[in-house]
Design a protein that fits this description.
By secondary structure, the chain is an alpha/beta fold. The chain has two domains: 223 residues, Alpha-Beta Complex (2-enoyl-CoA Hydratase, Chain A, domain 1), CATH 3.90.226.10; 40 residues. 45% of the residues lie in helices and 15% in strands. It contains eleven helices and nine strands. It is globular, with a radius of gyration of 19 Å. Bound molecules: acetyl coenzyme *A. The site of acetyl coenzyme *A has 18 residues, from β5.
């Protein structure tokens, strides 16, 4: 899609990051669009994701993240491991030489591409088929919900490559599956397939590959059937629940409800 075509459809082209971005009313769709390289991700991908988050039109309520081709994403572009790196973006070799502050800044920028997907104002859905490896797995974990095809293969490969997962994936993984299972998945770098993903809470739903788009559409319709402001307030409550005591959470419920009642009946 050209920049002009993308803008006509309410989005903008993100060719440099290997992404497409489209907005259709309350629904935004981000498509990893480098199928021939199994949607491998680079720093440009993460910058493009962050820019989408910064410029997301206010009317958007649901953000779908999906990948073209047989794999959702094969993770970070393996050229990062070579001395030459990714043209214009460096390599792990050059990144390793950065002073601490510069490194933190660079990683922080990359993480911004993932963090906004959890905003209370939206619900993000990862539609995942085939491999979701490393950064691909973490991108799926950055979303609120994961609807997956029956050929899905999640793999946190970073430890096998001498790295740690650092694209915001460790917290949602532990929260979804628990510490023991997260240790098992990450420290073996093993593949988690569809049945297990569903059983341990990594996936909300598993469907045949050909039914993935329809399953996502159905979920979007369900999500959009609920009052928008109530949905935002409820997501805020749910997100805060783990870090609050029961008393604090009850109080937070009351505060949100008071605002709702005033908006509806005040
Ligand atoms: N980076 C760059 N190119 C990639 C990547 C990647 N991560 N993954 C696949 N490709 C390329 C291949 O080099 C190949 O390119 P070519 O056609 O020019 O030779 C093309 O995509 C297709 O890849 P195949 O391996 O032929 O596809 P297949 O379907 O057989 O296998 C699989 C898919 C399993 C995903 C395999 O490509 C793979 O293991 N990729 C690497 C996964 C990985 O280690 N990622 C890093 C994780 S760590 C992190 O993300 C921080």
């Amino acid at each position: 899609m050209t920049e002009a075509q993308a803008q006509q459809r309410g989005g903008f082209a993100e060719a440099d990051g290997g992404l497409r971005f489209e907005v259709d009313g309350e629904i935004a769709t981000i498509t990893l669009d480098r199928a021939e390289k199994r949607n491998a991700q680079t720093f440009a991908t993460w910058s493009a994701l962050a820019r989408i988050g910064e410029n997301l039109p206010e009317q958007v309520r649901v953000v779908v993240v999906k990948g073209e081709g047989p794999s959702f994403s094969a993770g970070i572009d393996l050229r990062m491991f070579t001395p030459e790196g990714v043209p214009g973006q460096g390599s792990f070799g050059s990144t390793a030489k950065l002073p601490n502050e510069r490194f933190e800044q660079r990683l922080g920028q990359a993480q911004q591409g993932f963090l906004w997907l959890r905003r209370p104002e939206i619900v993000s859905i990862a539609a995942v088929q085939g491999h979701a490896i490393g950064a691909g797995f973490q991108l799926a974990l950055a979303c609120d919900l994961r609807i997956v095809a029956d050929d899905v293969k999640f793999c946190m490969k970073e430890p096998a490559l001498g790295l740690v997962p650092d694209l915001t994936g460790t917290k949602p993984l532990v929260e979804l599956v628990g510490l023991a299972k997260a240790i098992d998945i990450c420290l073996t770098a093993r593949i988690v397939e569809a049945d297990e993903a569903l059983r341990i809470g990594l996936a909300e739903k598993v469907v045949a590959g050909g039914d993935l788009a329809k399953a996502v559409e159905d979920k979007i319709a369900e999500l959009l059937s609920v009052n928008r402001d109530a949905a935002v307030a409820t997501k805020r409550l749910l997100q805060g629940a783990r870090s609050r005591s029961l008393e604090e959470q009850s109080k937070a419920e009351g505060l949100e409800q008071a605002a709702r009642l005033r908006a509806l009946f005040g």
